[in-house]
Specification:
Strand content: under 5%
Number of domains: 1
Number of strands: 2
Distance between the termini: 18 Å
Radius of gyration: 18 Å
Number of helices: 13
Largest sheet: 2 strands, antiparallel
Strand order of the largest sheet: 1-2
């Protein structure tokens, strides 16, 4: 007998085939994602705002931003550091053997490859402003969270509530950064639209990743994930994203994390690119 979770996973696989296209494991590509980036590369968008490269590089190397930075620079640094965290997690996972193979479940193959595309997507956001994200590790607190998930000597199933909580935190953070970026560059409609487009690609995936974890967890596991999110996420957020803490105001990100995480409502914003889990 097929459970509701198994039925959801089968539906998600069909959704991924349509959204991502053909998987090429050898080259770690998804055909529809490659097509998406070709359209991005063919229509380059540049902002009239040009941040000071030295200020950017100096602050990207620090765990906390220096005083006196304006909103645009804080937003750019927050976006670049989110990219560092995504890249660190992907590369660390690869070093530990978390790469797709022919034996990997189809949905996991897509998730692993999507995370790789996310680093490229965020790099494209930063490139709008004439900068590249340097190859540096993310802030210490972010590294510790990722290392705990990758290296913890316990079965993956026991870690799923923590992984799910981190995906939920990602959804909230990406949404906040998307909306602030669109607002900050509203005077440049092409730039604002490109920011929205790129962040929406990531956000839709992250919503699906939360759903996949919920499907893999039983009722008690989902309750544990939600409890972790309510209790731990607001406490971690200020430490993991100090630029966001400065950008949105003291406690603002934590308050956003305290709001009940409604995956279905988030997925409704992306009717063609997100697939919600109905628990």
């Amino acid at each position: 007998m097929t459970t509701s979770s198994e039925a959801w996973v089968h539906g998600y696989r069909r959704f991924l085939e349509a959204r991502d296209g053909t998987v090429d494991i050898a080259h770690e590509t998804l055909s529809n994602r490659e097509a998406f980036f070709r359209t991005i590369d063919e229509r380059v968008v540049h902002s009239a705002w040009r941040p000071d490269p030295e200020t950017f590089l100096r602050n990207i190397a620090q765990d906390r931003p220096e005083p006196g930075l304006d909103e645009k620079m804080l937003w750019l640094l927050a976006t670049a550091k989110v990219n560092q965290g995504e890249r660190f997690g992907v590369e660390l996972g690869k070093l530990c053997g978390l790469t797709p193979t022919l034996d990997t479940q189809p949905e996991q193959v897509h998730v692993l490859l999507q995370e790789t595309y996310h680093t490229r997507t965020l790099a494209d956001v930063v490139a709008i402003f004439g900068l590249r994200v340097p190859l540096r590790p993310p802030p210490r607190s972010t590294r510790r969270m990722i290392q705990l998930i990758v290296f913890a000597p316990i079965p993956e199933r026991c870690l799923l509530p923590l992984i799910g909580m981190s995906e939920q935190m990602g959804c909230v953070t990406f949404r906040l950064l998307r909306d602030r970026g669109v607002a900050l560059f509203g005077g440049e409609p092409e730039v604002a639209e490109r920011i929205r487009l790129l962040f929406d690609e990531i956000l839709a995936d992250e919503i699906c990743h939360v759903g996949l974890i919920e499907a893999r967890l039983g009722r008690f596991g989902r309750a544990a994930m939600r409890a972790l999110y309510r209790w731990l996420a607001p406490r971690l957020a200020p430490r993991m994203a100090p630029e966001c803490e400065r950008l949105f105001g003291p406690g603002a990100v934590a308050r956003a994390m305290r709001v009940r995480f409604d995956q279905a409502a988030l997925a409704a914003e992306f009717p063609r690119t997100a697939y919600a889990f109905a628990s």
